[in-house]
Amino acid sequence: MPDFECRLKKYRQWKELTQEELAQQVGVRRETIMRLEKSQYNPSLKLAVDISRAVGAPIEELFIFPDS
Predict the structure, then answer these.
(1) CA separation (Å) from 13 to 1, 45, 66, 67, 68?
(2) Cβ atoms 66, 58 nearer than 8 A
(3) Which residue in 19, 25, 35, 46 could disulfide with 40, CB within 3.0 to 4.6 Å?
(4) What's the CA gap between 5 and 39, in Å, rounded?
(5) pTM of the predicted model, to two decimals?
(6) What pLDDT does residue 11 have?
(7) Secondary structure (DSSP) of 8-67
(8) pLDDT tens track of the chain, all 68 residues?
């Protein structure tokens, strides 16, 4: 079970970006975006901020961490 929920795919699609295009914008491989969208990879703060800016959504809307 993932430690968080990732809503990146929804926002990426709203911006009409492919995984490859988003990956290029934020300086990672497409596989990283794929793993993020499947909640298999916990991004660094810098990557989360870069993605947030690229898709125009707050970090809190993209990455949902359950309350402990």
Answers:
(1) 24, 22, 24, 27, 30
(2) no
(3) 35
(4) 6
(5) 0.89
(6) 97
(7) HHHHHHHTT--HHHHHHHHTS-HHHHHHHHTT-----HHHHHHHHHHHT--HHHHEEPPP
(8) 457 889 999 999 999 999 999 999 999 999 999 999 999 999 999 999 999 999 999 999 999 988 75
Nearest to 14 by CA among 64, 56, 63: 56
Pairing of strands 5-6, 63-64: antiparallel
The domains of the chain, with CATH numbers, are 5-57 (1.10.260.40)
Q: Which structure tokens are listed for 16?
A: 């009409």
Query: 57 Cβ partners below 8 Å, 6+ apart?
Result: 11
